[in-house]
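Example 9 (inverse folding). The structure is encoded as follows.
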């Protein structure tokens, strides 16, 4: 199963980016896969769901995430993130501040998908 794929929830199309349980080098690869998919969408048309549960982060991943989230800004209507715990909360806050984006953190994928289906 692809780690970057469109899913449907309550009739809404959502781009699911699954970084869960990935090592830092895998995270960078998934970012590279996701960028052209996102850039192919019309401006302000995309809802994204990002799962970072048990994801490995380092400085390179943190910097890449900041650039990635900034790159995505013109295409996004709403973004939800799952798995933001511990030190990832610091990275999450830094990514939001750096990118000027509003990302919403949730405890479960289902809560995130429900929120996205209501805010798209």
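The amino acid assigned to each position is listed next.
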């Amino acid at each position: 199963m692809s780690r970057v794929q469109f899913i449907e929830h309550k009739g809404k199309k959502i781009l699911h980016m699954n970084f869960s349980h990935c090592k830092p080098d895998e995270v960078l690869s998934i970012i590279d896969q996701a960028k052209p998919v996102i850039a192919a969408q019309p401006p302000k048309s995309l809802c994204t769901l990002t799962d970072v549960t048990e994801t490995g982060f380092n400085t390179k991943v943190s910097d890449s995430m900041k650039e990635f989230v900034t790159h995505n800004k013109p295409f996004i209507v709403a973004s939800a993130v799952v798995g933001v715990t511990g030190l990832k909360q610091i990275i999450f806050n830094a990514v939001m501040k750096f990118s000027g984006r509003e990302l919403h953190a949730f405890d479960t994928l289902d809560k995130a998908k429900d929120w996205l289906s209501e805010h798209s």
